[in-house]
Amino acid sequence: MRYGCYVLLQGDFSHAVLELSFNDHDYVRLNEGMETWTTVGKLAEMLMEAWASTEFIHDLKTNLVSGCVEVIFRELEYGKEFFLRKEHS
């Protein structure tokens, strides 16, 4: 599984990434506009059918938009000393 989001310099959400891979060839991928999905393989199609019958997809998108940005800024705060350090020659 690979997921994350891109955040603009002013801190606004840009877009998300979500991919689930099975057996190195079947996969589910959220397309960049976050409106459509790409599925490859029978397992991926079955998973999307199961998700479509619940609120899971809506909740997943909501978490990617709001939760992901929050996590990025929290992690940046934890690591700010490292990111802001200056190399001494």
TrEMBL record:
Q: Its domain of life?
A: Eukaryota
Q: Does the keyword Cytoplasm apply?
A: no
Among its keywords, does the record have Transmembrane helix?
no
The protein's UniProt keywords, in alphabetical order, are: Glycoprotein
SUPFAM superfamilies membership: MHC antigen-recognition domain (SSF54452)
Q: Where is the MHC class I-like antigen recognition-like domain?
A: 2-81
Question: Any idea what this protein is called?
Answer: Histocompatibility 2, M region locus 11
Origin organism is Apodemus speciosus (Large Japanese field mouse)
